[in-house]
Amino acid sequence: MKKVIFSLVAATALSSSLFAGKNVAPAPLPPVPVPEKPAPAVLPPLGLYVGGGLTYAKSQCQCDDNTRCSDGTSCAQPHEGKTYGVNLKAGFDLNEYIGIEGRYLYTPWGDEDKTLKHYGIYLKPNAPVTDNIDVYGLLGYGKTECETMPKSEKGFAWGLGAEYSFGKKTAGLKEGWGVYAEYTRPLKKSGAKNIKTDVLSGGVSYHF
């Protein structure tokens, strides 16, 4: 009799646990994280730039008595000329403080027979003033031709300038359009050849 009662109690307990299990909600699965897409990389500017604009040049040439200028007169007489033309430049900014630049200017308008040409390569130290304004120097070497000189002359060249950039800088380098103004002295010699050139230029630039 005891065995029968024990069997009934066990069966009742087992059925109760089975029915009770129907009301137990399964444990929720943990959410699977979705990997976020990485933000697109922002490439810094290349540091390359080009520019060009208008130029005003004042040149003076005076040599020894035995040298003749292109117009046949003696170079012992001072020859001065004021001419106008264009300037072109292209360069590479190594960083925000130093760059290398090549430039060319040609002034075919103005005083007759006083056309000035200049080709040069320059080291360009740069000093940022604000996020948009930079001042810079030019230290280089070039070849200068003037119709009042019997032949071209080579020598040290220097200049000073300022540039305003319309775009924002990335990693210290400029990008986009800008405007510039500068003073340069492409050539100066003293002694038997008293030669001096002064140039004012302005224009637009584009940084890649």
Describe this structure in words.
This protein has 208 residues and is mainly β. The protein has one domain (48-156, 168-207): Porin (Beta Barrel), CATH 2.40.160.20. It is built from 1 helix and 9 strands, in the order αβββββββββ. A hairpin with a 4-residue loop joins β8 (188-189) and β9. 27% of the residues are buried. The model is unreliable at 2-6 and 17-21 (pLDDT under 50).
Largest sheet: 8 strands, antiparallel, barrel
Strand composition percent: over 45%
How would you write the strand order of the largest sheet? 1-2-3-4-5-6-7-9
CATH class call: Mainly Beta
| Secondary structure: helix percent | under 10%
The number of domains is 1
| SSE order, one letter for each helix or strand | HEEEEEEEEE
Broad shape: rod-shaped
Q: What Rg is obtained from the alpha carbons, in whole angstroms?
A: 39 Å
Mean pLDDT: 83
Number of strands: 9
Give start-end ranges of low-pLDDT stretches: 2-6, 17-21
